[in-house]
Amino acid sequence: MTKKTPDTLRSARWFAPDDLRSFGHRSRMMQLGYAEEDFRDRPIIGVLNTWSELNTCHSHFRERVQDVKRGVAQAGGFAVEMPSLSVDESFTKPTSMLYRNLLAMETEEMIRSHPLDGVVLMGGCDKTTPGLVMGAISAGVPMIYLPAGPMLRGNYAGKILGSGSDAWKYWDERRAGNITDEEWLGVQGGIARSAGTCMTMGTASTMTAIADAMGLTLPGASSIPAVDSGHIRMSADCGRRITEMVWEDLTPDQIITEAACRNAAVVAMATGCSTNAVVHLIAMARRAGVNLTLDDLDALGRTTPLIANVRPSGKDYLMEDFYYAGGLRALMKQIEAQLDTSCLTVTGKTLGENLEGAQVYNDDVIRPLSNPVYKEGSLAVLRGNLCPDGAVIKPAACDPKYYQHEGPALVFDSYPEMKAAVDDEDLEITPDTVMVLRNAGPQGGPGFPEWGMLPIPKALIKQGHRDMLRISDARMSGTSYGACVLHVAPESYVGGPLALLKTGDIVRLDLDARRLDMLVSDAELAERRAAWKAPEPRFERGYGVMFSRHVSQADQGCDFDFLQSDYGRPTGEPDI
Ligand code: FES
Ligand code: MG
Q: For residues 112 and 140, is the Cβ–Cβ distance under 8 A?
């Protein structure tokens, strides 16, 4: 299997020549206290660590990086930790999505500009998985993804709490006056109680499952809880394996093929994935030169049953239960017939070989195909005169009575305007009203914030309603639920038809036909279009300017145009 020799290692270009530059590189390694034998003729492994004290989901990465380094050293490599932009979901304003591409750029350039032969990517909190993977695909050196793992189940007063989902639920009860302040504080202290990512099937668990299904992690690594000792062992394994991958020259282009991207999409659908998966999966695939489209995802969704009974799409369980039930390998085993098991993975073996012996230990958590949570996959793609380039809905996470729905629109142009209205107890609204928020897309948000699960107006909450049809050009958290149409493209801020909708217009959703329309005549729409004025740019300086000029729309994955693999001449290796 060995394809690389010490002479042909990428890092040898920095360290091997008998010239002044390489003298400089070697002497600077010696400045760090290393002898030449420590780093010469060995794979140099960059460990890209998205640890930060404000990334609550990655708080164990400080220790785990030592385990990765231990593994690399055992296999004869030399590991260097490289801190990377820690895009955290909890605190980043206006939204972490604004910075996914910045992490991708940083990852690509850090790899390209340094003497690295391979990388271990340490991520997990929502945007870190796609950001790291997108950048590493473009850099092209062997890589392995180390998922942070989900946190333990939440717990308060003997009740199990799920990230995100239960926060929303208890918030609605608090607004309805059904729980005390003491209970509310108890939930606050119990809902996130260990290192690790959100333990519902939110964006983090979805994206790490996608990386796993693509063959980018050690088999089943995405399911191991962050604080399980198995996670420590998996980290050391990543170090050992990446070192071998360098000698084997097992580069990402051999792993991330069209078939691997389709496998990832099928697995995402079967897990009850976050709607965000659509945007990130398209962006990751495109970096690998695979043109995965919304229509491909809708088609795969129609033929893939949702079999992971994990909240919010499933009813009862969380990621910890999913792991005990056999984890992602067991889930993939159930749907093996729908996967291309010949795909190569980071193990150097095929996906099929990695799944050998995988078993389900609890078939209420990982359901058999004969008893799915939902007969189709978790996402559906809509089109119509409101969303000519597509919109996304998660049917499994909303009340089926909304699958066919017609009602008057109540339109808000900004989040503060909407927030004031939902808190107004006298708001004129009926249960069939369709609440709409616009100017919340990639450009308008700015950065495509997770505002799409618009809060149910107090006026309806008090009447006992907990769901209603909502439409926006925003995203929503993977831990959210409800009848929310998201990612309307093109977004209103750039003049998509959502910009033309008026309060009182009738909106119709027909899920079976995958249609979303406003019942407004073409002549009337043309008139409104002529009167529409483009808003001012959101940014006049800084990173935001680059973001606004180069980001693509939701259906294209929101990558920057100049980072697409087919944009311009290949960058190539640095001249040294
Ligand atoms: Fe990090 Fe949810 S906040 S995964
Ligand atoms: Mg999230």
A: no
Q: Where are the alpha helices (DSSP H) in 288-414?
A: 294-303, 319-324, 327-334, 351-355
- Alpha carbon 56 to chain centroid, angstroms: 17
The residue whose C-alpha atom lies closest to atom 1 belonging to ligand 1 is 125
| 387 C-beta closer than 6 A to ligand 1 | no
Amino acid identity of residue 455, one-letter, is P
Entry pTM: 0.96
Q: How far is CA 113 from CA 130, 133, 245, 262, 443, in A?
A: 21, 17, 20, 32, 31
- Which of 317, 404, 397 has the alpha carbon at shortest distance from 361? 317
Mean pLDDT of 98-119: 98
- Assigned token pair, 272: 């009850």
Residue whose structure tokens are 């002549």? 523
Q: Is 57 in the pocket of ligand 1 (CB under 6 A)?
A: yes
CA separation for the pair 454, 481 (Å, rounded): 10
- Taking every pair of Cα atoms in the chain, the longest distance, rounded to a whole number of angstroms, is 80
Can you tell me the distance from the alpha carbon of 489 to that of 556, in angstroms, rounded to the nearest whole number?
A: 10
Cβ of 148 closer than 6 Å to ligand 1, yes or no, is: no
Q: How far is the CA of 361 from the centre of ligand 2 (A)?
A: 28
Q: What DSSP line would sit under 18-46, residue for residue?
A: SSHHHHHHHHHHHHTT--HHHHTTS-EEE
3-state SS class at 506: strand
Residue (of 326, 324, 313, 312) closest to 358 by Cα position: 326
Query: CB of 126 closer than 6 A to ligand 1?
Result: yes
Please report the ipTM that was assigned to this predicted complex. 0.92
**Distance between Cα 387 and ligand 2 center (Å):** 24
Per residue in 201-214, pLDDT (tens digit) is 999 999 999 999 99
Spell out the SS3 assignment of 402-438.
Answer: HCEEEEEEEEECCHHHHHHHHCCCCCCCCCCCEEEEC
What ligand 1 atom has the least distance to the C-alpha of 88? 1
End-to-end CA gap in the chain: 29
Candidate of 91, 161, 165, 197 to mutate for ligand 1, largest count of ligand atoms within 8 Å of Cβ: 197
pLDDT tens across 337-387, in order? 999 999 999 999 999 999 999 999 999 999 999 999 998 878 899 999 999
Rounded distance, CA 136 to CA 123, Å? 13
Sheet holding 44-49, edge to edge: 78-83, 44-49, 118-123, 143-147
Ligand 1 atom nearest the C-alpha of 477 is 2
The best mutation among 125, 127, 165, 280 to test binding of ligand 1, ranked by most ligand atoms within 8 Å of the C-beta, falls on: 125
- Cβ(52) – ligand 1 distance below 6 Å: no
The three state secondary structure string of 181-201 is HHHHHHHHHHCCCCCCECCCC
Q: Is 339 helix (H, G, I), strand (E, B) or coil?
A: coil
Measured CA to CA, the distance from residue 567 to residue 349 in angstroms comes to: 32
